[in-house]
Amino acid sequence: MAKHILIIVTGGIAAYKMCDVCSKLSKLDYEIKVVMTKHASEFVGKASFEALTHNKVHVDEFKSSEYDIPHISLADWADMVLVAPATANIIAKMRSGIADDLASTVLLATVAPVFVAPAMNVHMLEHPSTQENIAVLQERGVQIIDSEFGHLACGYNGKGKLASVETMVSTVHDFQSKKSSLATKDFDGLTILITAGPTYEKIDPVRFIGNRSSGKMGLALAKAALSRGAKVDLVLGPVSVPIIGHENLRVLPVESALDMLQACLSHFERSDICIGAAAVSDLRPAESAQQKLKKGKDDMSSISLVENPDIIATLAREKHEGQYMVGFAAETEHVEEYAQKKRVNKSLDMIVANKVGGTKEVFGADNNTASIITKSGTTQLPELSKDELAHKILDAILQERC
Ligand code: PMT
Predict the structure, then answer these.
(1) Which atom of ligand 1 lies at the shortest distance from residue 363's CA?
(2) Greater model confidence, 62 or 128
(3) What torsion, rounded to 10 degrees, do the Cα atoms 173, 177, 179, 185 define?
(4) Structural domains of the chain sorted by starting position, each given as residue range(s) with its CATH number in brackets
(5) pLDDT tens-digit series, residues 113-165
């Protein structure tokens, strides 16, 4: 999952260097948002940052069409914050808790790790106030990316130059890498059976009944579970999204609902958790023609259909003590109510309800807005990337299993 870094650019000649920082971090797969103070925007235009980050740049405004309360949304969104170049002024505000513009307010509101790269005139940096402010921030856990010696824009030689782009990028990236490698493997020892993608129900060798599931939701679950130490059996309908390779991943490609049921039944026994993210066709043609049906020759005005078995409900009937069953519900109306009924009727421990067929597409999209429903209650989630939603679902499973 891409890590979110919020870069706060304050007024200094070195602000332009932050374009290079954005470019390098984005190549390392960070999602970047930028807040600029009014003074910073006099040194470098926000259009440069918007082009590099593909995100709106916030310049000191408190009202935005995208966010109701921008300082809180941005503060919560950030996994880490980099303040660079950091002026003596922003450092003093951070130390004192002054919140009189967007940048300082976000810094007061965030609980994410904060990195500060000071850049200023040598005397301002050496001034006891600045030195004391920096020391207090360090004591509070803020990480200072030290300024460098050199020729300063103000004409002086001495300490106060913004750290190099490479130093800033490697400091935040090393921190993130260490954090990720220490991330808990909370699914270690667990095996998860996941169904994903559509099923294709053959009418003849070239035609089928199917749907628009891309498999992205199921794959996001598989990726999240693998990153947390699980073994995954992924029963995957016909999809075109790229499949990740992983030593703990077994991919079982299938085409129809009957194939999917067989694959699930063969791997269900060894699973601790089963998640049905696939969009399984409820119906299939009673017969599929061996040869392509011909207009004018074959009767194509009607196809008789039979019901497919309900895979997740079949597995839930066979489940043994300790196995945890999760379904998805794709509903167009009364989403949570219908999903709750499905959870009970199919004997599932949890159901993830998502609204389909509305203005926001779910099939094939990268984002989803869902509610997690268990017997203990309903948790409504905001719109998240499918990767983020997958982690929320796994968090909820762990919490409910114990
Ligand atoms: O693949 P994406 O493009 O990322 O889209 C994700 C998604 C919309 C497919 C996914 O989020 C989702 O909602 N999957 C379930 C879709 C669905 O078929 O929902 P349903 O309400 O019809 O079925 C309820 C549950 O029963 C599901 O867990 C389904 O997998 C299961 N089912 C349904 C019918 C059947 N014959 N067998 C089943 O196991």
Answers:
(1) 3
(2) 128
(3) 160
(4) 3-178 (3.40.50.1950), 186-401 (3.40.50.10300)
(5) 999 999 999 999 999 999 999 999 999 999 999 999 888 777 888 889 999 99
**Catalytic residue numbers, as ranges:** 154
Tokens of 388: 């983020």
β pairing state of 384-385 and 367-368: antiparallel
Ligand 1 centroid, distance to 395 Cα (angstroms): 20
Closest ligand 1 atom number to CA of residue 196: 1
Outline where DSSP puts E strands in 135-182. Answer: 143-144, 148-151, 157-161
Place of tokens 């968090």: 395
pLDDT tens-digit series, residues 248-280: 999 999 999 999 999 999 999 999 999 999 999
Measure CA 111 to chain center.
19
The CB of 32 under 6 Å from ligand 1? The reply is no
- Neighbour count for residue 100 (Cβ, 10 Å): 9
The CB of 257 under 6 Å from ligand 1? The reply is yes
